[in-house]
Batch of 2 targets.
Target 1
Amino acid sequence: MIKKFLKRVFRKSAKVKKQGNAQVIPFALHGVACEQISYGAKRVTDGLQAAGYQAYVVGGAVRDLLLHKIPKDFDVATNATPEEIKRVFRRSRIIGRRFRLVHVMFGEELVEVATFRCKIEAEDAQTDEHGRLLRDNEFGDQEQDAARRDFTANALFYDPTTQEIFDYHNGYADTCNNVLRMIGDPLVRYREDPVRMLRAVRLSAKLGMDLDAATAAPITQMKSLLDNVPEARMLDEMLKMLLSGHSVECIQQLRQMGLHQGLLPLLDVIMEQPMGEKFVMLALKNTDERLSQDKSVSPAFLFAALLWHEVRCVWQRLVEQGERPVGAMHIAMEEVLAKQKKKLAIPHRHDAIMKEIWLLQQRFEQRSGQRPYRLLEQPRFRAAFDFLLLRCASDEVDNELGLWWDEFQDASDARREEMLRPDGVGVMVKKRRRKPRKKPGVVSEQAE
Ligand code: ATP
Ligand code: MG
């Protein structure tokens, strides 16, 4: 009680100092203690400062701590060059070609350390014909490093030694007021890097911050600039959105801003499937929930969910044309993946898992004989079962099937025997009728 009272009195008397163009916010005001900084980041700032350099925790981590959220990672910014940083830390390596960063390892933790950069002014800047910056890799000082960042809340520097925050763009007040505001002229900043529009959507949805009106206003009219962003970067940002733990809000906000159509192929895939929309939104909700419970989520599972209804459509068409179900599934998967690869640049490494999840879906229908036992032994059973539950929840398949498998997995041997269906019952897909063979006496082929 007394502690609280003293804290309040102390807070009232604490003042923001000016140092050059920075406001220096003392601990007594912001309340972020150095113990909240990760072990590795603290060791990095201590090590660099002891070697005579400036070093601060910067970006998302400071913002998240001010918002009472747990930071994803802790980045450090310094005036030491990559070579100088490397000399200070034994277990470190320089990465990146365009802009070199240093990764410093402390046990499991990896701290990314960047030298202050400056924003290249318009007349010297190398841009493409739409104004997108092609080069932003010049070293600078702390103030310049703040100016080249995107939002005011992302441009705060925290010194774990003095526990002060250095703020050049009023980011502390914005963060306290829950406002996400672009540094500088939003039109210019979106032109320099259109991905900032998506970052605005993602960060405001993820952090529950309000987008400042001037920051939000130009987005709808400037969305076509996203067409010029390299695919790999778009996919990267899309994945960040989908795995942000707030994917449902992100998608809703993208829709509100008209950013979902014609821009992001992956999103088009989602939105263009009226039938699949429920399924996809459930998959995203499920992902958000898993993340909030600190469970792992696999991008492959998510991609499999996003593309499922497209695969299903192609599969259905092929089956109607007389293709056998399993064969049709193989063709459908290849067709959809080939088409999406061109647009989306989904990394190949996810293909195998996506295909396994899709292929196993048909096998859930087979509930007789040895088949359910064999399915349980599949390494990808768990993911495929989670996928089945989503299909049940979206009314694509009967809930009863999900419940059956839920019980069967953990049932006793005796109960499992009871649960098994008589042979041939419950097979989703009708076997294709073969034309009567000319030669009598030939045994008909087994269903796949
Ligand atoms: P998250 O919590 O998702 O990691 P973040 O703000 O830390 O959010 P990062 O992508 O890790 O996002 O970027 C670290 C910092 O780099 C940001 O806080 C911001 O200051 C700066 N930054 C990142 N992307 C841009 C960009 N496109 N333009 C300007 N500054 C950027
Ligand atoms: Mg970050």
Target 2
Amino acid sequence: MKDNTPLAWAVRNISELFIGRRGPAAGREMGEAPVVRDAVVLIRDGIIEASGAADVVAIPDEYDVVDAEGGCVVPGLVDCHTHTVFAGSREAEFVQRCEGRSYAQIAESGGGIKMTVKSVRNASVEDLVESALPRLRRMLEAGTTTAEIKSGYGLTPDDEIKMLHAVHRLAKRQPMELIGTYLAAHTVPGEFAGRPNEYLDLVLDPAVLKRITDNGLAEFADVFCERTAFDVDASRRFLTVCREHGLIPRLHADQITQCGASRLAAELGAASADHLECIDDDGIAAMRSAGTVAVLLPACSFFLGVEQAPARRLIDAGLAVALATDLNPGSSLIESMPLVMSIACTQMHMTPTEALIASTANSAAAIRRSDRLGALLPGMQADLLILDVPNHLQWAYHVGRNCVRTVIKRGNIVHPG
Ligand code: NIG
Ligand code: FE
């Protein structure tokens, strides 16, 4: 089966089928997801043909069959916020943080993002591709079937485009579906210190944006909206010009301080505002009115040893909360979405059901793919996982163990492969 998955086949002997929901699921909806016991799934041409109870959904005689052996089946995980393409390593900063220095102190003394920028500028597209491949393999093995990947470590037009070319090549070199995001406004590079608008002139040059969009290198634009990076006015400018060129806005918002970034996300109709550790009530209200997805990054706060975003407050206020790894070499060298779900449950008071909806339906909504990703409903893409636990509650509960037995992407078995 695995080398040559047939066009029409079925998964049977599923103890619990977590169908999930079409995103975004807001507030209380996040905890209400249908499950079916003793279920089957029919797959045809990479699409879910039918899913439901074994005594209701019949498997046609000509279909090949895979036995889930009493495991749970869930939608493939969507990691909607990553910096998976990078070069170099920053373990020296990790040691400094273990000794008590903060992420901000390290960044202010010349470390942080700027360290990775140096390494990325010295790397070729192929270097970036080769170093990202094993990360993507591990993410897939842990259940991620779709990932967004940002630029943001090049900080010149050519180096940013080089990173996006790496994402584009990676999409063809391994099974996971990848989406590129233009994060040229990640930080002001050293050569433009104190002159953020001059730097933005460079990366907002229409010819640069045209190179990105003409070649389909990115769908989203992102900014680190923070006093130490780009303030609200500079962020608005970056995202507005990008949007005029067809890139959908997203933001790193209210991570280290509250500076109005989540309100800006709502004002611009951003697909998501991400981080939100320091969000205030005005930001929450604005995002709720605008329908902005709140992407939380529990692995980042865990890795930095700082307070988590107020997940419970956001869900109880009626927002659609998504989860992602924020995989990057500085603040979250964490590739595993299941670990993110476990941290969300143990540290942020999300339930396992909410955490799974946040990692499927709502993370698909954050990258505007709710039409085909994030649930196992007929007509949606056949991205699914067979787990070796009998129900989805046991997944987040068994912290740090890989419970994924089989990964299916677009109807093909891609792991084990
Ligand atoms: O999402 N907040 C800014 N950017 C990344 C960190 C990147 C880095 O330290 O290399 C983040 O946490
Ligand atoms: Fe990030």
